[in-house]
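Usage example:
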Amino acid sequence: MKYSLFTLAAQALKGHRGWPRAWRRPEPKPAYDVVIVGGGGHGLATAYYLAKRHGLAGGRGGRGPSIAVLEKSWLGSGNIGRNTTIVRSNYLLDGNERFYELSLRLWEGLSLELNYNVMFSPRGVLNLFHTDAQRDAAIRRGNAMLLNGADAVLLDREGVRRYAPMVDLDNGRFPVLGGLFQPRAGTARHDAVAWGYARAADRLGVDIIENCEVTGFDIRAGRIHGLETTRGAIRAEKVGLAVAGHTSALARLAGLELPIESHILQAFVTEGLKPFIDTVVTYGAGHFYISQSDKGGLVFGGDLDGYNSYARRGNLPMVEHVMEIGATMIPRLKRLRVLRSWGGIMDMTMDGSPIIDKTPITGLYLNGGWCYGGFKATPASGLSFAHLIAEDEPHEAARAFTLSRFASGHLLDEAGTGAQPNLH
Amino acid sequence: MRIQCPNCGERAIEEFTYRGAAAPERPALDAPLEAHFAYVYIRDNPAGRHLEHWHHAGGCRAWLVVERSTTSHEICSVRLAEDQEAQGAGAGQ
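Running the assembly step on the lines above writes:
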């Protein structure tokens, strides 16, 4: 069913009892042309673009090419629901910026494309700076963004006061000198992104199979032939991995060793408030980013805890640290109560940038290493991963995200911190 | 998390700085390039017990080899890195 004003009105007259399921619950078939492992944002987006742009759909009649997405738990139960929902394309390096700018352009049309309201809200992202050196770096970054077709505005103190009056501009230690503002950036409703891609992919004939964990790969003579799962063996011509957070563990089943560590990142939500912060603001004198959800809660986060973890919960010192930084930037936060905090597991690569590439195993493709920037990348990640799987060639915008760059030295190190994943 | 420093006793995690996995061993200078690449970039990244280097920066400034579970954050053992080193290579698995 296509969602529209007409279907809404028709359902309203029936008391909203007639809405069909947004996607089917199919049994796994014995074989598919393409299997995507991971029913989160990236995996579902990949399946959608494979079906939409590469014609690899038509599974419904049981004939023709077919695609499945395997999810070990329920759909969208991983990092797509654990992030701070920020969407932006304010990167410095060309290899990153052109990709994230493509992603932002996809975000702008996503609700229409999917016929599903992902609540993309281009409310702007404001990065504060506090020193002359940081201002120089912000100008350089802004120019790099403009050269790649993105938007960037340099704000002085008065500009910051206009967009973010709640920020303490005259902080005794870190007075705010200005900010780099990206007006087209913003936030989106994270769960709706997974649901929207799932529904749109399902309508194109993609089988989305939940509660189906991959336990092994059938690899013979350097080529993938299928997967072992908790719901039986599935043959596949091509397999794409999109399980960021647990990429190392899954890749190990295929005999791959990767330049990735898994780390814990915490995030927080306060009690609901009346409108208080209408952009996304990030601090320059500490790692802190904050926005206000449509329900009114302030959503914010900071640094990684800093040690390898798969635990999906962090420790209290980082909680305290994030609160301190937040209260330094916006002193009024001190009066608020935090309702929830949670932790997500991040694939941290050795240079802080993602990997979308073939693997040494023919037919096995890798999408991972999203560090803590995966949410904003969802549309472009799906688009370029689908392109890679269908064409066996990297998408133009994702050409820099190779697996071989660590050996060849073509790193994409935005932070310039080297092979120390907990610092990216 | 609290770490039992062999020199200082049990201390809060804020006193320590994390370096990373302790298992990779620096290859000899004349080792092939692939060995150096693996040392710098490739990680086991296990979900479970993990050997790692922590620096007691806010205490005795000793380097420690800590065995810790990455799924529960339980700390299983702590040794001075110099003792680990004295036991010879291969202790890092």
